[in-house]
């Protein structure tokens, strides 16, 4: 039983990181109907911005919540900027091109980020500085919980609540929902669709950047190709929950995190990376709209 | 048909009389270029002609490679065995294509991209975990059965078959799906069926290319068939022009030679520098000339 609860805690901590990345995928898919393959690499970029910021400001000399928040803020700002540049230079010129062309471009951007990352950051793995040093494990009965897991979970949850507030309560959020509902109609209603799309990219990229720093905190080995697998898994989480659906992305990510943790804990650790894709094929077979998605018919 | 026989005859003559006197390094580059051309043509049928986006071509290639290698390793070697191994490899890969395509092709194109990408990974993970075929150590000592005539013969047959398919009613259906899926459906094309056909045919030729690859390199390792291998095939297709089958051949030769030329640069920067060049090529091609770099003369003839 104790082992079971332990796996649940680990799974939720992993799932909350997937959720942060999945949110960006699902938001961008909502407004552009585009799978942004470069999204996972923005998460890698976030981890490296966090790394270099803390090196530059010597943040690991006085670890604590404030250092963590500085690194987090830097990574989120940097990634938002990168997201804006990518959208502006690579995706906006293709707004009216066939969708497959935009998809190919996003694959190109993803490769460019990965391998120029290797060129600039070096291809060897780096050790992420310990921005927060827990004084010890928290013991609840027989359970041992790493405080870092709690911090990762709480910060992700906080960011998700902020995002939900922006989307549901502000004018910008309403504009985003309008654009994702109907692009052209939103433009006719006077919504600056290009600006809204840029903003959506920036928001999603900032979340990916935050996820990068949080991963650096929890699993402190970062390298330029680290974004590929989590990126794909986050996308799969978004599809599991129903792509384009904010709550769905979080639910899907938590489910995937738990499923992976249980697979590793109880059954076959070597097949960990194959599990997500297996789940994806299953969900596409039986409920292609995802767990929380609604069916949309294509109109001509 | 007559053209095909003439071309095959010419390839056999070149392979018999000229190739033995050519430097073996150049011959091996030519072989890899030919194999890449087969892969690119088969992917072009899916990505370019049917408008779907498959990103796991290396997965089908690896299935073909391993199946063919197992056949030639386990049976006593005779030359007659090789075509049989190639065909079996193709058929098994095609079957895998059917299994992967069935759930994902009912949906819009983007899902196919992720599912095929994932499939490529699953295949790699599974291959790594099977001990009989060497797992991570790889599968060495594959017989050296492939040569210039085999590779280029297969390339010409692939070109011939795909161009014939595209001119048949089946091929017309593929092109209709690419141009407008909803309109094609309204005109009575079973779009899921057409997509699946294109995908399975593409997987078949990828499997054949894998078989040739296995017997050219004579060593297989799951790591050979990673993401980057699939991306390399995609960039060849995009470079040659989506839907332009002959363009794919030229692009395959260009890119394979370019990779050899870039090898020194890779040693200096100590990273896979060609991937940066590929990425920049992909983005700028899409932004500046999404039709590929080849002239319209080739396009008119190549694209039916």
Q: How many E-type strands of chain B?
A: 0
Radius of gyration of chain A: 19 Å
- Helical/strand content category of chain A: mainly alpha
Structural class of chain B: mainly alpha
| Binned strand content of chain B | under 5%
Number of domains of chain B: 1
Q: Specify the helix fraction band of chain B.
A: over 70%
The third-level CATH topology of chain A is: ABC transporter involved in vitamin B12 uptake, BtuC
CA radius of gyration of chain B: 19 Å
Describe the structure.
The complex is a heterodimer of chains A (300) and B (304). Chain A has a single domain (2-286), classed as ABC transporter involved in vitamin B12 uptake, BtuC. In chain A, a hairpin with a 2-residue loop joins strand 2 and strand 3. Helix content of chain A is 72%, strand content 3%. Chain A is mainly α and 300 residues long. Chain A starts with a helix and ends in a 14-residue tail after the last helix. The mean pLDDT of chain A is 85. Chain B has 304 residues and is an all-alpha fold. Chains A and B meet through helix 4, helix 9 and helix 11 of A and helix 4, helix 5, helix 10 and helix 13 of B.
